[in-house]
Design brief:
Layout (H helix, E strand, L loop, with lengths): L1 E4 L2 H5 L4 H14 L5 E9 L8 E4 L2 H4 L4 H19 L5 E4 L12 E6 L3 H4 L7 H11 L2 E4 L2 H11 L6 E3 L10 H6 L11 E5 L8 H10 L1 H6 L1 E5 L6 H5 L3 E3 L4 H10 L2 E4 L8 H8 L4 E3 L5 H5 L4 E2 L5 H13 L1 H15 L4 H25 L6
Helix pairs in contact: 2-17, 13-16
């Protein structure tokens, strides 16, 4: 089977769950017998899979809605469509929700990652119209969790037989012990620390942690809060003594997880919650919420707290700081839980969706007499 991926997620974010999902899925698909995966990354921010054409550029070219970024995105769209016309394939897997013109014989598959903009309109973005068109044109839609599947049905009225739930694989794929022992892999803290990974805006509920560190001197004295990735650290973070690490490679991030007292993840909604599994794979206890699809990923292997109860969060952090036996129990549960998710399984289930999409595309073309959709 020949599969084509596009450039969208690599264009839209320098790092994040969507581009990580696409890269790890491509890697696992390429390890599957009889599968060829190609793609074109265009001008991009995130590092694409090996063999994807294009050029990595600075954020000034693609961030925001400036005149330069609009022209760059338009150029990427035109060049991808030209590139696609010269390729032979059976399946086109869109990495985000924009719709491009590709050969009509290709089965269209798109992944629904979440319904954040539908649930939290103040998060910005203009994705709803794009999603509606992408879902309407797709022959099959992969949902990364049962929660995302339910939300797609609720907000878009998509037929259930068009949807398939395929969970992400596990974590970073880096052995925590090896990462922790690698010389210079990451500048670890001398003091104990809890870890936060990713964006910190809006529904991510990082404000809860910011208030804790600003208002609880005893917590600040007991441990550091380290944030990896996301937007630059704010003045309020610096005043509270919160540490911001701009970026980390997979090996470095695995080390940050492995040496942390816990991952703190107070999000109000997640389509899946990949950092939760990344932490668990590395043996890092997880303190999080029961919001969105997080319990679907974490199961009974996480310490759950109310997203609005700062005292409960402070208590959970203090317990893990002072009770090594409890920390070990959560770490063991997490490793066992993370072992249930793998990118090879994700790839196998995704291939089954591709086959179904090919059948649906052939049926639709036959019913329409081969006319263009």
């Amino acid at each position: 089977m020949r599969v084509v991926f596009d450039h969208q997620c690599f264009q839209d974010q320098a790092a994040g769950g969507v581009s990580r999902y696409a890269s790890r899925l491509v890697e696992a698909l390429r390890a599957s017998p009889g599968v060829t995966v190609t793609g074109w990354a265009g001008w991009h921010l995130a590092r694409p899979p090996a063999g994807f054409g294009g050029r990595r550029v600075g954020t000034r070219w693609l961030s925001g809605m400036t005149a330069i970024s609009r022209l760059a995105r338009l150029g990427n769209a035109i060049r991808f469509e030209r590139w696609a016309r010269r390729r032979e394939a059976e399946v086109y897997h869109a990495t985000y929700y924009r719709s491009f013109r590709v050969p009509e014989g290709w089965a269209r598959v798109v992944t629904a990652h979440d319904c954040i903009h539908e649930l939290f309109p103040d998060t910005g973005g203009n994705e709803l119209a794009m999603k509606r068109e992408a879902f309407a044109r797709a022959d099959a839609i992969i949902c990364v969790s049962e929660r995302t599947r339910a939300d797609v049905i609720k907000y878009y009225g998509v037929r259930e037989d068009k949807l398939a739930v395929v969970h992400h694989g596990g974590g970073l794929g880096v052995a925590a012990g090896g990462a922790a022992g690698a010389a210079g892999a990451a500048p670890l803290r001398e003091r104990p620390y809890v870890l936060y990974v990713g964006r910190r805006d809006g529904y991510k509920n990082f404000e809860l942690l910011l208030r804790l560190w600003a208002e609880e001197p005893s917590l600040r004295e007991a441990c550091d809060l380290v944030c990896v990735g996301g937007e630059p650290g704010s003045q309020a973070m610096r005043q509270a003594g919160i540490v911001w690490v701009e970026r980390a490679s997979d090996a470095e991030l695995a080390q940050w997880y492995a040496a942390a007292t816990a991952l703190v993840y107070p999000s109000r909604y997640e389509g899946f919650g990949l950092p939760v599994l990344e932490a668990m794979e590395a043996g890092c206890p997880v303190i999080t919420t029961r919001c969105g699809a997080i319990p679907e990923a974490a199961g009974d292997a996480a310490c759950y707290c109310d997203p609005d109860d700062g005292r409960e969060w402070a208590g959970a952090i203090r317990r893990l700081l002072t009770h090594g036996d409890e920390r070990a129990i959560w770490a063991a549960r997490g490793r066992q839980r993370a072992g249930r998710f793998s990118w090879s399984r994700c790839a196998g289930e995704t291939l089954a969706v591709y086959e179904k999409a090919r059948t649906e595309r052939a049926r639709a073309r036959a019913e329409k007499g081969g006319t263009r959709r």
